[in-house]
Amino acid sequence: MKVTEHLERAKGKTLFSFEVLPPLKGENIRSLFDHIDPLMEFKPPFIDVTYHREEFVFKKRPNGLLEKITTKKRPGTVAICAAIQNHYKVDTVPHILCGGFSKEETENALIELQFLGIDNVLALQGDAIKNEGRFIPHPLGHHYASELVQQIVQQNSGRYLDEDLQNPQPSGFCIGVAGYPEKHFGSPNLKTDLKYLKHKVDLGANYIVTQMFFDNGRFFEFVKNCRENGINVPIIPGIKPITTKTQISVLPTVFHIDIPEALAEAVEKCKDNAAAKQVGIEWAIQQSKELMSFGVPTLHFYSMGKSDPIYGIAKALF
Asked: CB of 234 within 8 A of CB of 4?
């Protein structure tokens, strides 16, 4: 079932969803299920599965040539989505990236997802890999998420890269895209960022999931600006609880977001990470309650591979 259909069936009730990371190379599916199992108590209608590009370094060989060595690789998102849907009978939302993929590889992934009966995708540009200072697209791929959205929309209409394909079957993907209450770091200002977001929606994106934020005022203003600019698709807030003391300095650097002064001060006063995690959980609970009162369609949690903080928050809300 499509994400938008789940939202319609909820009839205004706020749903619970979360995002999982594919396990690292060498781990098996049980490690992922152990993460998901506790959260199924809250009946998520869908689970997002991220895609992380493989990371690599170049090592100098004795002959002086450089050899590309993969340092981190995760199992395929398509396979993990299939495993989750089979095991839990719940819909999944695989993340589809521009970075690291050609248009043909993207099409092949979409064909596999369609074959497996997966109805949803989240179309993203993706991050730059660690050894690159900025995002560099695949030479035969997409530069921007809007281009990726356009390819998916075309496939939904039965148009594939091979124009001579016989009896092409249209796909029916519900397309999610990312929104940034504090603007994407690559945009010069919020107005420009909203223009790019509207372009993705005008191309055919069906809903928006936001980057994490800790100040609900930023989200409320973002929704207001979206509506005033003709962006009328559902907007799902992304929530991430603070779990360690260092995150108040790391998260702003990595995700280009602000930490409210009150939250930063409360975490700084904590004697250890256990205390900081409790502060983060309590902040997220209050944040979520206010968002539910606002009428958000879903609370979407970024678990970062740790289910216990999300469980504590969901237990207080659902």
From this structure: yes
Residue 60 binned pLDDT confidence (cut-offs 50, 70, 90): low
Q: What is the CATH number of domain 3-240?
A: 3.20.20.220
DSSP code for 37: G
Is 182 exposed, middle or buried, given 0-12, 13-18 or 19+ CB atoms closer than 10 A? buried
Distance between CA 233 and CA 201 in Å, rounded?
8
Q: Distance between the two ends of the chain, CA-based, in angstroms?
A: 22
Task: List the one residue out of 196, 206, 180, 184 whose CA is nearest residue 297.
Answer: 206
Burial class (CB in 10 A: 0-12, 13-18, 19+), 83: middle
Identify the pLDDT of residue 131.
61
CA–CA–CA angle 180, 304, 183 (5° rounding): 10
Residues classed as catalytic? 19
User: What's the token pair of residue 243?
Assistant: 């779990």
CA–CA separation, 304 and 127 (whole Å) = 16
Give yes or no for a contact between 258 and 182, defined as CB atoms under 8 angstroms apart: yes
Whose tokens are 């009428």? That residue is 295
- Can you read off the two tokens belonging to residue 99? 């970075």
Q: What is the pTM of this model?
A: 0.91
Residues with Cβ within 8 Å of 3's Cβ and at least 6 positions away in sequence, in order, are 45, 46, 91, 93, 120, 174, 176, 206, 207
Q: Report how far apart, in Å, the C-alpha atoms of 300 and of each of 9, 67, 158, 210, 288 are.
A: 17, 40, 31, 9, 10
Domain ranges, ordered by start, for the chain? 3-240
For 279, phi then psi, to 5°, come to -60, -45
